[in-house]
Amino acid sequence: MNANKEKAVRVSRQAEGLLTKVNTMIETDAYCPDVIQQIDAVSGLLRRTRLELLKGHLDHCLEHKIKENKARTVDELLKIYNLSK
User: Fold this and answer.
1) Which of 58, 60, 45 is nearest to 8 (CA)?
2) Helix or strand or coil: residue 28?
């Protein structure tokens, strides 16, 4: 596993732990702004996970994928960047 994937796994596990905490907070009627702050933290961790996976893809997979099927690879990248219809 490359460094990007290792980091992505580590960060996504942090998000998973925080999400469990969020669920507990909701179930125990924690103060709403505190819950929302934790939800924002989970979202930030998931964005970091996404970024690490994207970096790894661009660094390790892209060249092979373009050679394999350029049109499909371009479509995938457009979808990832929310540029496709």
Assistant:
1) 45
2) coil
Tokens of 57: 């893809």
Question: For the chain, which residues make up each domain, given as ranges?
Answer: 3-59
pLDDT in tens, 19-68: 999 999 999 999 999 999 999 999 999 999 999 999 999 998 898 999 99
Nearest to 4 by CA among 82, 67, 81, 58: 58
Q: What is the pTM of this model?
A: 0.83
> 3-27 vs 32-56: helix axis angle to the nearest 10?
160
Sign, CA dihedral 32-17-50-80, equals negative
Assess contact for 8 and 52: CB atoms under 8 A. yes
**Residue that has been written with the tokens 């960047």 in this structure:** 81
Amino acid letter at 38?
Q
